[in-house]
Amino acid sequence: MNGNIGRWRLRARAGALAALSVVGVTGAGIAAADPAPSFAALLRQTEASPRVAILDAGVAQAEGLADQARARPNPTISVYGENFGGSSPYGGFGRTETTLQYNHPFELGGKRASRIEAGRAGIAVARARGAEGRVAYAYELARAYAGAEIADRRIALAQDEVEEATADLKVARALVGAGKEARLRELQAETELNTLQSALEAARAGRTVAFAELSALAGVETPYTSLSESLLDRLAARPATGPIDPLASVVVRAAQAERDAVERRIVVERKRAIPDITAQVGVRRLEADNATALIAGVSLPLAIFDRNRGNIAAAEAELRGAEARAAVVRLEARAAASSAQALIESADLRAAAAEHGLATAEETYRLARIAYEAGKSPLIELLAARHGLGVARGVILDAAAARLDARAGFARLSGRTITGDMLP
What we know:
Elements: H1 2-14, H2 39-45, H3 50-69, E1 76-82, E2 97-106, H4 111-177, H5 183-218, H6 231-234, H7 250-272, E3 277-286, E4 291-299, H8 309-373, H9 379-414
Antiparallel strand pairs: 1-2, 2-3, 3-4
Helix pairs in contact: 1-4, 3-4, 4-5, 4-7, 4-9, 7-8, 8-9
Keywords: Coiled coil, Signal
Family: Belongs to the outer membrane factor (OMF) (TC 1.B.17) family.
Organism: Sphingomonas aurantiaca
């Protein structure tokens, strides 16, 4: 009996480590796949995943735009003719004047330098957003990894409850057969068993979903069917945590980089309103005189209608928004940093309390079953004790999940993985 009660512990702890074949909703097996590696190894493998590729593409895009910002405006060459095809004496081509002209624009007011600075700021933003995205991805991957492990353990718990309910049903049938219990008690035990079997099927479906989500997040096409590491057990020990500087978090740095980039774009828009000049030099062929002459000139646009005021106003408004967002991010980071340690301590206390509650529930069920087998207590007390044991086991898993969430949140604020490794 004690073995039946305590078996769930062995299964729960081995659930994430055993190479289990995947079980579908209908109970049919699916083609086996390699188990997911350890979390640290899986995170390294995801460097080629689509989620990381999106971040790298953002940086590459910013670098391309910054490289383009260095480009100077292209010159133009024009060829045109004058004084031909008209009335006498310009009816033919005898008085044609043909001009070959080279036009070279010159940017004034430091436009190119401002574009280059804005391009560099854009790269800084992309890299900061990339670092933020990698930290967020590591956080999501850790939660998905732990979610798959929790789903494994929920199946083990559900299987234990079904086995215990089956054993209780056998006892109830024996008592009914001996005339010590009414037929109603057997029906109650059967109903309880059917309910627990339904819960087991739901747990199996949840496991399939959890492993599919982990596989999709990791960027693999064939879903994982098992895990090679218990992340929950690894985080059971209290880690060494210290204060977090909220202003050094990747989220705050990304928001500040965005604000600085917008400020650079304002300079670009303001300088864009400065007119540029175009120098012109060319050669003109005078057919009537059988001569060639040089021409030269300068053109300057008149800033009468378009002074780029709308774009400047839009950029200034964007800056105000970026500054407000950066302020919000700083406030949220400070709040998260101040509560991160408290959340970890609360999760640890919750886990310890859950362990004590489980021990009490196990002893309660053990005594209730002894009493029921001896005919000293009704079936309803045994069912209530087993229900309490199931709840206590679920609380253990919920506490482990809460502890992982607290650790993952702390790691995200620190710019690290949940296992303490620094991200690139």
